[in-house]
Amino acid sequence: MVYNDDIYDLTFVKFDIEKLLKAYQQLIETVPYSRGIVNGILLTKMLNGTSGDPRGIFWITNKEGIEEHREKKVDENLYTEVRPEIKNTYFEKVYNKLSQHFVLGRVRILLLEPRKCLSFHRDPEPRLHIPIISQPGALMIVDDFCTHMPADGSVYYMNTTKYHSALNGSEENRIHLVATILDTIRK
Q1: 92-125, pLDDT tens digit by residue?
Q2: Contact by Cβ (8 Å): 31, 43
Q3: What is the mean pLDDT of the chain?
């Protein structure tokens, strides 16, 4: 695969794809997706104990070329605990390992259905992506750069503060674990 400064594999961390798939299958047996263009399951919860919202603010450029925001602002700093449903699962291990390198906001499972595409938009923070189920027709785009992230346990940095999109041109659901990056922990 080809990557650039806005989408790249973090070579210092990798996870077991079979354990990710098993944890995902167990999760969807008990926790429903919130529905939308991208269906989501939050793996983290807010400090006050509420589950929160898998969707958050983003910006698009309208037909007049003016940038507009959509959705509501989410305080990513409040999402500091894993949900009880993922305690003692492989997802908790993934969260703990990523937290050694990054200050994380929301951590979510996002499902993009076959033949679907997101709007070309930008987010307030960059994201980490761990593909759990992905096919060559599932593509990520930042500015004019496009690539596929294979589901092999790799963790990908994606600069989602730039205009980007995801499309699933395959015949199967595309499943990614997506974590908001609030800061990098220096070691």
Answers
A1: 999 999 999 999 999 999 999 999 999 999 999 9
A2: no
A3: 91
Q: Quick check: 90 and 160 in contact, CB under 8 A?
A: no
The set of residues, in sequence order, having a beta carbon less than 8 Å from that of 6 and lying 6+ positions away, is 142, 143, 145, 158, 159, 162, 164
The CATH fold assigned to 7-45+77-184 is Jelly Rolls (2.60.120)
What is residue 99's predicted lDDT score, i.e. its pLDDT?
A: 96
118 contacts: CB under 8 Å, gap ≥ 6: 37, 38, 112, 165, 166, 167
The pTM assigned to this predicted structure is 0.92
For 11, phi and psi rounded to 5 degrees? -70, -15
Q: Are 54 and 68 in contact (CB under 8 A)?
A: no
Compute how many other C-beta atoms are within 10 angstroms of the C-beta atom of residue 110: 21
> Domain ranges in the chain?
7-45+77-184
Residue 54 has a pLDDT of 66
Other Cβ atoms closer than 10 A to 61 = 14
Residues 89, 95, 96: CA angle, nearest 5 degrees: 95
